[in-house]
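Progress note, sequence design subtask.
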């Protein structure tokens, strides 16, 4: 137990430390003498102490261990850290519950990185709302729309506030005769590094209308998943003008 980087702990039924390794001391920031007999209420605020109590109570009641409970601790020096903990029931030789034990891992750096990525994603989405093109982000595995900016929502007839276009398969927006073009383009967007030309397809609006769009896709990542960002422009009026010109010749 002293060789592992994660903290190992054992507590009695009330939650007081009765055994732990050196890594546990390093995570919480107290010496072994200080930690022995210490209760989680001494290094957590009320909200997190309540979460620990609920986790212990659930394990005690069901007898089933729990994993990846996320709590925030307050170290001796006053700094706050995020931890990921497992909880299992500790029994005596007669099988009676006598406490709890588990592994604790400091996930502060990971948590802060996730928060930074979320903030960066929010800033990025805010920027996409200002572009004159319709932006649609499609999950690479499910082909479902996971984001659409206001211009895209308006283009396809969806409510930009309710985001009611999110969750729909991108092929449901495409004219049946043009689906093959979109699928081919989508695959190239994912795996072809060279910048490609935009492609024109007929798209369908929410109310069943039809419009022509040009689309260009870029491989990206959205909410931790592989995706394609489609930049679209409504060229319906241009196509109508071209058809009218051809008809007049």
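Output:
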């Amino acid at each position: 137990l002293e060789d592992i980087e994660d903290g190992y702990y054992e507590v009695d039924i009330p939650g007081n430390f009765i055994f732990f390794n050196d890594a546990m001391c390093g995570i919480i920031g107290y010496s072994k003498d200080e930690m022995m007999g210490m209760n989680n209420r001494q290094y957590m605020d009320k909200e997190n102490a309540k979460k620990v109590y609920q986790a212990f109570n659930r394990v005690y009641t069901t007898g089933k261990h729990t994993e990846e409970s996320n709590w925030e601790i307050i170290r001796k020096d006053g700094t706050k850290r995020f931890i990921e903990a497992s909880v299992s029931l500790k029994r005596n030789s007669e099988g009676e519950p006598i406490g709890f034990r588990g592994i604790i891992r400091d996930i502060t750096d990971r948590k802060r990185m996730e928060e930074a990525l979320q903030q960066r994603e929010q800033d990025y989405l805010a920027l996409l709302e200002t572009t004159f093109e319709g932006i649609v982000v499609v999950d690479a595995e499910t082909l479902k729309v996971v984001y659409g900016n206001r211009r895209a929502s308006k283009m396809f007839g969806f409510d930009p506030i309710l985001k009611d276009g999110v969750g729909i398969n991108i092929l449901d927006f495409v004219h049946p005769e043009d689906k093959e073009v979109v699928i081919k383009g989508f695959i190239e967007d994912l795996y072809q590094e060279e910048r490609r030309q935009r492609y024109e397809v007929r798209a369908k609006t929410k109310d069943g209308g039809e419009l022509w769009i040009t689309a260009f896709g870029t491989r990206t990542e959205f909410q931790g998943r592989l995706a394609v960002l489609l930049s679209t422009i409504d060229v319906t009026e241009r196509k109508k003008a071209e058809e009218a010109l051809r008809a007049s010749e």
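The two ends are 86 Å apart (CA to CA). Work on this subtask will continue into the next period as scheduled.
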